[in-house]
Amino acid sequence: MVDDLSGLGPQGFERLSQALAVRVLGPGVEVFGEGPDGGREATFRGRLPYPNPIEPWDGYGVLQAKYKAKIMGTGSDTAWLRQQVSAELKAWSASGKKRVLDGRLPEYLIFVTNVSLSAVPGKGGKDQIDALIRSYATALGLKGWAVWDGITVCTLLDSYPDVRRAFRALITPNEVLAAMHDRLTAPPVPSRVDVVLPGPQYRPGQPGHEATFQTAYDVAGGAGRFGEAMGEVQEAGPGWVQHFPGGPYGEPAVLVELPGKPASVLARTVWDDLQAIGGGLPNSGTIGIGFPAVNRADPDPFIGSDRQEIELEGGQWGRRGRGRLIRRPGKTPVWQPEIVLDSEASRDKDSWTSLSDKRDLRLRLAGRIPLAVEDWGITDRGRAKMLTALQKTGLGEVCRHLADRYGLDAAGMEWQEIDEPDGHNNSRFSAYHLTATGAEGRPAVSICLYMVLPDGYTKELRTVVDLRIDFTALAPAMASNAPLLIPVTLRVSMAELIEFFIQAWRVATMVVPLAALDDPISAQPAGAPRVELYIQSERPEYAGTDRTVRPLDMVDLSSLGVPRSSQSRDLSVAATAPLGLSGEDVDRWVRQALDRMAADFGLVVRPPSVR
Predict the structure, then answer these.
(1) pLDDT at residue 271 in the model
(2) In the predicted structure, residue 376 carries a pLDDT above the cut 80
(3) Which residues contact 240 (CB under 8 A, 6 or more apart)?
(4) Strand 108-113 versus strand 58-66 pairing type
(5) pTM for the full predicted model
(6) What is the DSSP secondary-structure string of 452-504?
(7) Residue 195, pLDDT above cutoff 50
(8) Residue 35 CB neighbour total at 10 angstroms
(9) What's the pLDDT score for residue 528?
(10) Contact between residue 89 and residue 132 where contact means Cβ atoms under 8 Å apart
(11) Of 177, 292, 325, 413, which sits most exposed with the smallest number of CB within 10 A?
(12) Are 444 and 474 in contact (CB under 8 A)?
């Protein structure tokens, strides 16, 4: 409901304007009493949190009240205000110092009026008054101005109820009748209530967080931007939060604080986006991805609804609980974990391995992608989509390149389903291979793809991309050697190793999942994606097979260093990383992962200049 400001009278409206000026502009406002004031009801100096902390006014300004005794509700009200403002502007720009009591003209002007102005673009009263002031801006040296019309004043009174309560003349007969109607039609209550007390007032940070919350609240814009607190501070996710409805020149907001960190302020739309990540599953939202990370170098702690990238910390997801939220207009917000390498790759070391089909070398990239998806299912349409996307990657070329180098016939190679018992293909499992055969028609070089959808106990979609080589199918004479001695010319080179892992990374995280998902990135996450990289022997010394072979005898890692001993164990490394990395990013992280793998294995790493 719009307040009836005409009941205040000219002096009451002037005092109301001064009270609002103090609340909106801050304690630096100087209020004038009755008598000659040089066309000023109040003045202000210095830096103000107005109109917003990002573009604050900084200088000397004047506030004037323009009260119209009888509001007609027609264009005559606007014409009257235009005449009043024009007279004031002419008086300010006139020669002489009659108006310049302190030796200077105002750099900022605010006109406060009980006249409500239309906001119709180009024709409304707001644009008319704005154009009038703008025409004098150069002559007066104005840096900024504002008009608080009747509608704006009512909005400010909603934001500052303490000012409203101080001016009881705002209570109109209509309000009295409405209150009587509510009392007469309300159901009976056990006891009589003669006085209706206002609801409790909450401070920023109450209880126990006043120091950090009040500082962030004031610096970001205070009540004018955020309004009064809607309740006390509550625990949420990794820290504490407090909600605010939004002030006259701001939007609904939330103050948040992590333990031991400064508080920050974010638009409620941003908060809602954070809470929605994970689809409402347990430990999702801010519990999983954390709160915005405070940027101490930024003087404004407010994260507005137009912010597109927000750094996060303190969550349970990811290796270190850090990441970022990506927001794009018209698209679902996407969470990305911080990329972190670690030495704990083991979960998928032996997944989808065959007891009967033993070869020699296995290069493996395994992915685990936690997703909050209902109604999982691999479909024929999804398989076709996956195979189409697979043809556009370079993974098949990795297999064909090796086949050509080994003198194999790569013509006619096509992706085919892996038969049982080594592969399963149904609504939950998917298994495909691309194979070049060698001696006696035996598989010599293969790329194998596996995927399994989550069961009822997990949310992880699991994928594997293997490159498998049987060197005895390339040169049957080697089969009699125990341990197997592989010529250096047949070993997988560093360039081939890097290219496989680059292609496998994209296929495992973005292509294989297409058999069950239209777009893995748009699906709600249930945790941080993780990939594991392995260089393995399928015939290790401890396996009791007819022959053995060591990983470093099948892959040329000499550019990374030399082994300290004749170790025969496998090499591995893991990475926590978001889906959809660019090709350049994948290339960079694969190389860093191989460096980490070599260091963990114990290679004496050579300086980069020697590689």
Answers:
(1) 95
(2) yes
(3) 209, 233, 234, 256, 257
(4) parallel
(5) 0.70
(6) E---TT--EEEEEEEEEE-GGGT-GGGGG-SS----GGGSBPHHHHHHHHHHH
(7) no
(8) 5
(9) 96
(10) yes
(11) 177
(12) yes
Q: Report d(CA 491, CA 471) in Å as an integer.
A: 9
Structure tokens given for 77 = 């009200």
Dihedral sign for Cα atoms in the order 82, 86, 87, 88? positive
Calpha distance 247→302 (Å, rounded)? 14
Q: How far apart are CA 262 and CA 326, in angstroms?
A: 23
CA neighbours closer than 13 Å in the CB half-sphere of residue 375:
1
Q: Residues of the chain with pLDDT > 90: what percent?
A: 53
Distance CA 416, CA 426 (A): 14
45 phi and psi angles, rounded to 5 deg: -135, 155
d(CA 529, CA 362): 23
Span 526-554, pLDDT tens digits: 999 999 999 999 988 776 667 788 999 99
**pLDDT attached to residue 170:** 59
What amino acid occupies position 18? Q
Angle at 598 between CA 488 and CA 555, to 5 degrees: 20
Instruction: Give 121's pLDDT tier (boundaries 50, 70, 90).
Output: confident
In angstroms, the CA 537 to CA 570 distance is 7
Rounded Cα gap, residues 217 and 204, in angstroms: 7
pLDDT at 102 over 90: no
User: Is the peptide bond prior to 421 cis by the omega test (within 30 degrees of 0)?
Assistant: yes
* Mean pLDDT computed over 487-502: 95
Question: Which pair of tokens denotes residue 501?
Answer: 């892992």
In this predicted model, what pLDDT tens digit does every residue of 34-48 receive, in sequence order? 545 556 788 988 888
Structure tokens at 179: 């209150």
Question: Which residue type is seen at 26?
Answer: G
CA distance 284 to 370: 11
- Based on its alpha-carbon atoms, the radius of gyration of the chain, rounded to whole angstroms, reads 36
Q: What is the pLDDT of residues 239-279, one digit of tens each?
A: 999 999 988 778 899 999 999 899 999 999 999 999 999 98
Coil, helix or strand at residue 62: strand
Helix (H, G, I), strand (E, B) or coil at 255: strand
Cα(59)–Cα(104) distance, integer angstroms: 11
**125-139, 337-351, 364-378, 564-578: range with lowest mean pLDDT:** 564-578
* Pairing of the two strands 416-417 and 429-437: antiparallel
- Which of these, 72, 49, 67, 66, lies nearest to 110 by C-alpha position? 66
Strand order in the sheet with 253-257: 234-236, 239-244, 253-257, 264-267, 302-303
- Six-digit token string for 263: 């508080």
**Residue 260 corresponds to which amino acid?**
G
Taking residue 603's Cβ as centre, other Cβ atoms within 10 Å add up to 20
CA 482 to chain centre: 56
